[in-house]
Structure formats: C-alpha cells, structure tokens
Specification:
By secondary structure, the protein is of the alpha/beta class. It is 32% helix and 27% strand. The protein contains ten helices and 15 strands. The strands form three sheets. Strands 10, 11, 12, 13, 14 and 15 form a six-stranded antiparallel β-sheet that branches. A five-stranded parallel β-sheet has the order 3-2-1-4-5, sandwiched between helices. Strand 12 (210-215) and strand 13 form a beta hairpin. Helix 1 crosses helix 10 (289-297) and helix 3 runs antiparallel to helix 4.
Amino acid sequence: MAVKEILPGATLGVLGGGQLGRMFCVAARTMGYSVVVLDPDPASGAGQIADVHIRADYTDQSALDDMAKQCDVITLEFENIPSKSVRFLSTKTTVYPAAESLEIAQNRDREKQFALNAGLQPVPYFAIHDSSDLEQAARDVGFPAILKSKTMGYDGKGQYVVTSMDELQTAFESMGKVGCVLEKRINIRCEVSAIVARNDNAEIASFPVAENQHRNGILHMSIVPARVDEKVAKLAVEKASLLAEAMSYVGILAVEFFVSDDDVLYFNEMAPRPHNSGHYTKDACVTSQFEQQVRMMCGLP
C-alpha cells in the first residue's frame, strides 16, 4: 500500500539547528514547505532561516508538544538527540528516522552488533562494560588498538590509540570508566562512505560513493567518485542498503567503511542523517542529499 505523500505547503520539523539543519531548511523552503526548527541556541544557523525557531532544550516536553502540533512530519539533524524525545514526538506526529534507528546509531556496541546481524563486517572488537573486561579485551583484540566510548563520540572525540595494557588502563580511566569498545587497529587503504535514501515505500536510491580523508579525526576532504574498484563502490552501496532495509529506515543514511589493502569492506559507523561527505551532492547531483531528505520524510519518489 502506497504511503500518503506530504506535499509542498505542509510544515516540516527538524530537531537540531546546525549547518546540516540549515541546509535542510534551504532545501525544504525551496521546495515550497514551511519549516519549524527546535534548537536551544538563540543563534542557531537553521533557526535563523526557518519559519519558526522554537528555542528550547530537546527534552522540553511542552516545546516538543508545540512542535508536534505545528508539523506534519519531523526529522533529525544529528544523532545525539535524546531518543526519549523522539519517542514522545512519534506519539503525536510522524518522525523519521524512528527512535529505534537512532538508538542503534547512538551506541557503538549496539551499532556494530546490528550491522553484523544485517550482513556487514565490523572491524574486530570487544565490548568493555567495566574494568574487569580490560584484560579479556586485550587478549581478544590485541595491540595496537583503538579504545572508543560507546556513546557521544564523533569527529575523533572519545577515542584513544593504545599499544599496551598499561595504555589501555590509562585511557579507560581517563574516559571516566564509561562503556567502551576496543577495536583492532587494521591497515586500511582508505575510508569510503555510502549515502543511501529510503522512503516509507521501501524505495532506495544512492549517491556516488565518496573517499574520505581526515585530519585530527575530522573530515578534511571527500573525493568523488572514490578511488576504489567499481566492485568495491557497488558493494558499499549494497551493504548500506542492507542496513537501511534491516532497520526499515526512512530518511538519509550515511555508512562509513574501511577498505583494506585486499579490498575487504569493514563497517565503521553509520549516521542517520545527511553527512559531511555528501555536501558535494548540492552541486554535482540532480538531487542533493538535503532535498532527498525532504523527499524521503514526505514519501515522495
């Protein structure tokens, strides 16, 4: 059964008001939609060009209720929105992506397990819950390795390269002994990202795969098309699409992969939103990732 389309003239909401939210607002308003942004920052980049900027915390229930009343459908700008807020909104209006997808993306251990079950191959890793897991993690993964916090880590934050048991213990303590994953540090040729779009009719479209180069853990440059074998690029899109299908995902999904020297694709992480490596789509593609985000949440082709 075809999902009812939400046509221009309707009001779209976005949780988060940074650069990605601002570019979403530009796409939505260009297409003829009104936009409501919820973001606590009075100087929110997206809030400045939205029809309505609700200045409130993401957990403010009255603000969320106000947003739900104004919006026909709501999406997210970044993945660290509290999932409880998304669940609350979804009882009052439509929200894409769903809270379940958000909760998978917010936790590295849960994310890797889900990806593995969906047919993707994560880098070998061990989940660390407390200090008693450190020795087993070191035995299973070996050194060198990368210790990453399970939650709230991005752009190189919450990550330590460790080469010994002593360094692992020190890094774990410096992180406040929070839940972590210890990943094997593998030799890779490059990192690539596949960005796919899926709507509620289960239609999937993809953008050309990007090759990403980082400086200090932050994306510095994307090269498109990625300088990998065509089979590798095709496989990245196939694997990203598998992940989207497994979550019954609606929206834009960016999936990062490490490419080994022998062209094995290792799942790194996913972002349930437009991605910095997809900014080229604004100028190089018929449809940008931001217009596609609008189209997916509105049930358009």
